Amino acid sequence: MALILSGPVLADPVRLDDLFDQLKTADAEQAEKLERDILLEWSKTGSPAFDLLLERGGEAMAAGDFPTAIEHLTALIDHDPEFAEGYNARATAYYMAGEIGPSIADIRKTLSLNPRHFGAMMGFAMILEELEKPDEALEVYKAALAIHPHLSGVSEAIERLETAKSGQGI
């Protein structure tokens, strides 16, 4: 009988690079699967305790309990300040709680730790639009689209902003 020991499961940077390479040339259907695989890689904390904090934060968000979500995700970040997905999840919770400043701060931290985080870019661009900063939003949407050519809603957002910028009605 063999004993198999396994360590913590962390995101595999080589696998992520491969997934992103595939994403650039994928069709829409393939891109959906690749996106799910990337999100799965990003969610690997390497610790069952951290996994639980991330899970509880997500459950609290889904239940509309944003203060509890922020609490769980802050605990995760306190224990693992290099885990980008913790900041991204907390940015979402802050945004949903109406706390735009902290949300932007967490998006910036997410992107400093994971510059390819197309979800954080998408959220940031949406916030920039809400703050009536269409030029900045357009720039961020385009950056997200360069990473993920089939990211849902981004092409439409770019078209909408470019049309508005050119002075044409939609």
Automatic annotation (TrEMBL):
GO terms for biological process: post-translational protein targeting to endoplasmic reticulum membrane. The lineage of its organism: Bacteria, Pseudomonadati, Pseudomonadota, Alphaproteobacteria, Rhodobacterales. Keywords: Repeat, TPR repeat. InterPro entries: SGT (IPR047150), TPR-like_helical_dom_sf (IPR011990), TPR_rpt (IPR019734). It comes from Neogemmobacter tilapiae. The keyword Hydrolase does not apply. PANTHER family: LD24721P. GO terms for cellular component: membrane; TRC complex. GO terms for molecular function: molecular adaptor activity. It comes from the Bacteria. This is Tetratricopeptide repeat protein. TPR repeats lie at residues 84-117. The keyword Repeat applies.
